[in-house]
Please model this.
Amino acid sequence: TPTAEKSLKNTVAAVLRGFDPVVKLLDNRVKQFMRNVCRWQPSTSAPIPMQTGRSMLKGEDAPSARSTKELFVVDALKEAKKSGFSLFADNLIDVGDMAYHVVDVAIKSYGDSVLDRLLVDAALTVSE
Model:
């Protein structure tokens, strides 16, 4: 029917332009997830429980310390589930891990020079 076609065209146009409320919500949630993942720091994770060396003397295996990647995956999975992305959390976590590493390398490589410029610009702007 002509009414259904017009409605479908309007809906598709709204989705493609980004005016659809569901697409906006999804976009906002993905952006928030990526912000949280890129700001993640290993120190913000739950600490590894400390144990005495007593169990080592009894011949038991020492508990393995969790790697940074494992801690990241656990925290990112919680964030993904909280945002309602359980269905494709694995893919989102992989992309988030890559983004985290890109940001980390950029800060380690260029952080000082960029931060110095930003601080100087901010100080000059405030003093004027």
Notes: The chain is about 70% helix and 0% strand. The two ends are 65 Å apart (CA to CA). The CA atoms of residues 50 and 63 lie 10 Å apart. The helical segments are 2-17, 21-38, 54-57, 68-82, 89-127.
